[in-house]
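tool_call: predict_structure(chain=1)
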Amino acid sequence: MEKRANILVVEDERIVARNTKRILEGLGYIVPAVAFTGKEAVQEAENFNPDLVLMDIVLEGEMTGIEAAEEIRNRFGIPVIYLTAYSDKETLQQAKKSKPHGYLLKPFKDNELHAAIETTLYKREMEKKLEESEQRFRSLFENSPDGVCSFDLEGNFLTGNSMYHRSIAFISLCH
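tool_result:
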C-alpha cells in the first residue's frame, strides 16, 4: 500500500481551513494539523514534519505566509505550495523568492489542488534521490585511494579530493 502523504494546512480563515482539510482527506491525504499563523505553521512543521505545506500568504499575526514558508524550507526542507487569493505582481515576486513548489489561486478546483500536490511530492522525491546520489558521489570522490581532480574546458583547476592534495603536497616537497 502506498504511503499517504501528510500535509500541513496553514490558513487564517477557519472555514477555508476546514474546507481545505476536508478536501485533502477526501483525496486520501492525512492532515495532522491546521495552523492559523506563521509562527504556528513553523511550530507544527517542526512537530509533525509533514511531506508538504499548503500555505496562505496573508496570515494572522506578525509573520506572513511567505516568511513562514522560507523558515520552514530553510529549517526543515519541507516543500510549500501557496494557496492564495493574491496574484498581483508584487506578491508574486515576493513569493517567488521563497522558492515555493507551487502557487494556486483561490478559489481552486479539487483536481487542480490534487495535481499540484502530486507533482510537488514527486518532485521532492526526485530531489531526495538526487541528493542521495550526490552524497554517494561525494563520498566516493573524497574517499578514493587515488588522487582525483577536475578542470574546466579552459584548463582551470576546479576541485580535487584529499588524496590529490596530499600527492601534490608530496610532489612539491620532493622538488
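agent: Helices lie at 14-26, 38-48, 65-76, 89-97, 110-143, 162-174. Proceeding to next step.
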